[in-house]
Amino acid sequence: QTPTQALQRDPVAITHNIANTVRSSQLCREDFKEIVTTGNHQERWLDAQQVYYQLAHLTLIHDSPTQWGLSYLMIERALYLRQAIEVYISPPVMSTIFKQRLTNNEWAVLKDIKNILEPAHALQAIMCTEHTPILACVLPTLESLLSTWTRMRKEPSNAHLRRIIDAAVEKMTSQYNERRFSKPHIISIVLHPSLRFRWIERNWPANQVSYAKRTILLEVSFMLSAKPDHCLACKI
Questions:
Q1: Which of 4, 50, 104, 153 has the greatest number of CB atoms lying within 10 Å of its CB?
Q2: Count of CB atoms situated within 10 Å of the CB of 52
Q3: What is the Cα–Cα distance from 160 to 196, expressed in whole angstroms?
Q4: How far is the C-alpha of 189 from the C-alpha of 198, rounded, in Å?
Q5: Is the model's pTM score more than 0.70?
Q6: Per DSSP, what are the bridge partners of residue 52?
């Protein structure tokens, strides 16, 4: 099975079905927890270097289209609990419940997909913060993500994922272009102490830098013209 063939089997959908089944009832969740506990006691879980480690008592996560980031978290959790999952679904009686199981190559592709989603998930966590203003960070964040995905697309190990990366880059580029010429975004970048106008000069082509400069000058001129005539100190 090649990576492309493994991808065509949609390992994300298979993982989603496994997670839903394990979470479908209290009994299923208890059985899965017992497998983790027993494996810990028997020192059954081994890492890539064949060193024993204990699994935390975590449940599987199923993704949802209404909550950001769950696909990444679902995949991350499934990869962490892979050995327990394989023990849980291995009995012959489970073959009627889990009609699709992940092969070794499909697990590998699932890990590749997780690596592709990881930078987007990390940046999303930054953008969701409630402690600092984030408007100024929107364009730099999108640009950083586009740069990361473009670099990952060129890596030979991601050849089987290029169509997925291309679709993500196209979507993200569209969102970036929609915001690039937004006056609030330009002003917030210029006012940000760690970005300033130099960020625009470093990252935008000359014609767009000129547009941003005109936008700022017009806004400053408007603010100055709105001051009362007698407030000379404000104008100075």
A1: 153
A2: 12
A3: 39
A4: 9
A5: yes
A6: 46
